[in-house]
Amino acid sequence: MSDEMLDDPRITAMGLFVEAFSGLNARFHAQLAEHSLGSVDFEVLMRLARSPGGELRMTDLAAQTGLSTSGVTRVVDRLERDGLATRRACPTDRRGSFTVITPTGLARMHEVLPGHLTLIDEWFTGLLAPAELDAVLGGLRKIRDAVRPDATSGVPSLRSAA
């Protein structure tokens, strides 16, 4: 292996991305724990809260979160147990079901979001000038769309905004 490969800017880019994500994730994890939420639970509730009618098909929720169908079932079971979400049968497909955020789940999101937005501003978006943020968002969307093309499955209006 040559030293040139070790100094490749692609390695630097990936390393910086991972370090930034890990640092942000640690801060978010601690803040979410204060509200008795794990990061996956928060992601599911956020996706439900931002979806029309506060609901998503279970298959779309799995696609958006990158969870397996059994993984999303376990998360939704936990959210149901805690009264934060519920399931509703799909009226057009007996095999399908929707996950719906409950008023309690929405209230929990309203409790969590002020602190979460403060962290986002302090450690991410607030560190960037508007043009830098636009460039980062554009780049992240491009990468997301390439590596997870179904990440906005079931929510066509969020394709460009998610």
Automatic annotation (TrEMBL):
Pfam families: MarR_2. Transmembrane segments: none annotated. Gene3D superfamilies: Winged helix-like DNA-binding domain superfamily/Winged helix DNA-binding domain (1.10.10.10). GO terms for molecular function: DNA-binding transcription factor activity. GO terms for biological process: response to stress. Residues 1-145 form the HTH marR-type domain. PANTHER family: MARR FAMILY REGULATORY PROTEIN (PTHR33164:SF99), TRANSCRIPTIONAL REGULATOR, MARR FAMILY (PTHR33164). This is HTH marR-type domain-containing protein. It comes from Dactylosporangium matsuzakiense. The lineage of its organism: Bacteria, Bacillati, Actinomycetota, Actinomycetes, Micromonosporales.
